[in-house]
Prior knowledge:
The complex is a heterodimer. By secondary structure, chain A is of the alpha/beta class. Chain A is 57% helix and 13% strand.
Amino acid sequence: MRAFGKEKMVRTLSIIAVSLFLITLLGYILYNFYMDFFDIENVFVKAGSGLILFFTTIIILRYMFLLFFSILKLIFKSSRNIDLKKISTNRKITIIVPAYNEEVVIETSIKSLLEQTYPNLEILIVDDGSNDQTYIKAKKYEFDNGNRSLKVLTKPNAGKAKAINHGILNSNGSLIMVVDADSKLDKNAALLMSRYFDDEETAAVAGSVYVSNQNNIWTKLQALEYIEGLNMVRNGQAFLKLVNIIPGPIGMFRKKSLYDVGLYDSDTFAEDCDVTLKLIAKGYKIDFEPEAVAYTEAPENLLDLIKQRYRWTRGILQAIKKHKSLLWHFKINPAASFTMWYMLFEAVFWPFMDIWTNMFIIYVALSSGFSILIFYWWSMFTILDITGALYCVLVTGERISLIFYAIYYRLFFIQIINIAKILSTFEEWFGVEMSWGKLERKGNL
Amino acid sequence: MNILSFLAMMILIITIITLVFGLIAYFLYKSRESHKKKYDKKLHYEEVLNETGDKYIFFEEE
């Protein structure tokens, strides 16, 4: 036990030392970039490089702020030791699982729900008109012992939002937990999330999403993306009580607040983002519990990954468009305005800037032979990614080998994703017809 | 050529390949989806009847 503690301390100190070295290296590269910028004589190249420098500085600041808030959140959290036995279980929680053609994964998902340590639980599986064995497979698990129950509802296919609403209308719990059918929950997830609702202003709590099928480079890169997104971005946002998306695989809501905003809407392809924005617009707090974990199956090949990101991008843009008036509510609701601008930056500005920069640098390199710009651009972001990944690995205890994927992440993964995001943005702009685009499950939960 | 220039050149080449690859992948995805959509589309009796010029047609039972 003692040896284990020492080993952990050595690992922590090594990670901190490497992070400090990387941050120094980042500062050195940024300094060189600034110095080279002043030496550029061509006005066109200087203007482009200036823009790149400006954007790089914004992104570095964003990273640093998120990291800072994330560390603060962790410090506050660790100062309050949680005794699971002391968490109140008086409130009934209804777990709603919308399911459409999920026969491959539904049983694994149900089994993980039955293992929840929270005693006062109602599980509702809402079969959204599946044309496979989902309903039959789920039905086998129905039971009711008073305190705990599992019921399977079925309805004609009408989309995820309506399936969740159907579950809410048939629920008895005062807290609603929405879980995707392709997710597997950690046994304490419901218990850990429920305690946030002691604060009456909290309307929703997001949980952590981890990739369960880390079996090839695409899923490993997504695993890295998820742990960075969760432990830096979501933890940082949670410090301000402004988590902007309650993820589909795991989220808990106060039922009263959901009714207050008119439940889920079906007019976007990102119903989770839409409902979160509606809650933020009403002035509610949205928090995050990093230890409430859901494991989900990530797309295993590139085309499925693009399919997923296509829907996410267009869905988020639809939600932003729907709530666009909030963009200018700086005085009435600054939190909502800030959230909207942040989302717009992530969904539109950043992908465009990233691809534009790459194309500008290629043009400059091909026309003048000046190619050091791409080294500055790539190395700074790779260092940021590695530093972020180191921090996340330290916090989560994930495998250290994931850090090496940060090199590939910046080298090609994020560019492919950004191209898909840009083209999806154009399609959304021109109103190209789209459908839900369900991913085929492999059953690797 | 020093190490920085070499690295910059390598990253540049990988970036060009990635951008082209990203575009190709996106259009491959679009083509797969449109093909799937066509394949998944269910036939309605009236549509088939229209296509066949109002001649009676027969569906085989599965």
